[in-house]
Amino acid sequence: MALSFLGIESSCDDTAAAVVRGDGTILSSVVAGQTELHAAFGGVVPEIAARAHTEKLDHCVEEALHLSGLRLADLDGVAVTAGPGLIGGVMAGVMLAKGIAAGTGLPLVGVNHLAGHALTPRLTDRVEFPYLMLLVSGGHCQFLRVDAADAFHRLGGTIDDAPGEAFDKVAKLLGLPQPGGPAVEAEAASGDPARFALPRPLLDRPGCDMSFSGLKTAVLRARDDLAAARGGLSRQDRADLCAGFQAAIADVLAEKTRRALAQTRTPLLAVAGGVAANARIRADLEQVAQDGGAGFLAPPLRLCTDNAAMIAWAGIEAFRLGQRDGMALAGRPRWPL
Ligand code: KG4
Ligand code: ZN
Fold first, then answer.
1. Which of 16, 130, 185, 267 has the largest count of CB atoms under 10 Å?
2. Rounded CA gap, 256 and 262, in Å?
3. Looking at the domain assignment, is residue 81 inside a domain?
4. Cα-to-centroid distance, 9 and ligand 1 (Å)
5. Residue 121 beta carbon below 6 angstroms from any ligand 1 atom
6. Is 43 domain-assigned?
7. Are 267 and 153 contained in the same domain?
8. Which atom of ligand 1 lies nearest, measured to the CA of 139?
């Protein structure tokens, strides 16, 4: 019989629980978002997130078990995100996992949230090590060479905002709805990406580090210049700004990915995170992989964005390598891979 693990995730603004088998079968995956709770504040409010996790976690776990058809006694272990993330939420998940482990005697495995994302291609597609992973979401942006389930090499990442965060902020600047990524992408479809000369930050510097906050400021300046000159933005102005911004992000991600692939020479490029849903960005990355002689993999979006199936899976991989955490497992707000 294959192993089966319960996974618990509560490090940002999604409360999630899942049951996954060691052969990669996802028996259940429940995700309860909190977008509406934070919408009025223009960002995730840590105290509100922590309280919502506390309220929703029990229910998510019960639901995940129910949908899986398994009882706690049928499981082989409990995996929980122990960081990095908002510490209130991380602690809520860790405490629940400890309670379950103590009550059932099941082994407890603390998982790094980034390892969860980074190992997802093995859950969905059984890929072999090594591979290059690009995580691009609202909270993450980094290149990882994944050598083993416990060996990650970071090649670079953003030194300020994540691209998703930049999409969200640009949407806000232009009066578009949240989440900003899909809204900006939709506007960009009818825009001219060449009309505004927006910067490609850090492309002139070697290495794989990226920066996106200056790009957002450049959009703000272009918007204000237009508004000052014409008293407002036309529909076309907005579409052109969105197209220019999206092209700048895509260019930076593509060029830095080209460098990361050249450095690692891995046979596969995998991408994860909400921003990987962007058609232009995804097509550019796919082209970079092809040019570099590498395969390209983007797992289904529901497994690329925050979820607990990836945590259960990362827990299974760590468990197979011998990891066991006792009641001393502590949540960590910062935890580089
Ligand atoms: O991975 P994710 O669901 O959550 C975390 O950040 O953890 O990513 C959400 C981010 C948001 O910033 C959203 O605006 C962005 O991904 N996003 C997109 C698109 N769809 C979602 N960005 C660009 N283009 C899209 N189509
Ligand atoms: Zn995440």
1. 16
2. 10
3. yes
4. 18
5. no
6. yes
7. yes
8. 6
pTM score above 0.90 = yes
Q: Does residue 130 lie within any of the structural domains?
A: no
Task: Ligand 1, residue 304: give the atom nearest the CA.
Answer: 1
CATH code of 57's domain: 3.30.420.40
Residues 6+ apart with CB under 8 A from 332: 82, 83, 84, 87, 90
ipTM over 0.90: yes
Per-block mean pLDDT, blocks of 10 residues, the chain (337 long): 92 94 98 80 77 92 98 97 96 98 98 96 97 94 97 97 95 92 97 96 95 96 95 95 98 98 97 93 98 96 94 98 96 94
Ligand of minimum distance to the alpha carbon of 111? 2
For residues 184 and 110, membership in a common domain is answered with: no
Tokens of 119: 């190992």
Tokens representing 85 are: 């993330």
Half-sphere exposure of 307 (CA within 13 A, CB side): 26
Indicate the pairing of strand 14-21 with strand 108-112.
unpaired
User: Distance, CA 314 to ligand 2 centroid (Å)?
Assistant: 13
**β-bridge pairing 141-148 and 151-157:** antiparallel
Q: Are residues 297 and 310 in the same domain?
A: no
Same domain, 209 and 281: yes
Range of the domain at 251: 138-301
Instruction: Quote the pLDDT of residue 42.
Output: 64
Cβ–ligand 1 distance for 137 under 6 Å, the answer yes
Nearest to 52 by CA among 81, 12, 19: 12
Please indicate whether residue 167, judged by its CB atom, sits closer than 6 Å to ligand 1: yes
Give me 140's structure tokens. 């993450």
Find out whether the beta carbon of 182 lies less than 6 Å from any atom of ligand 1.
Answer: yes
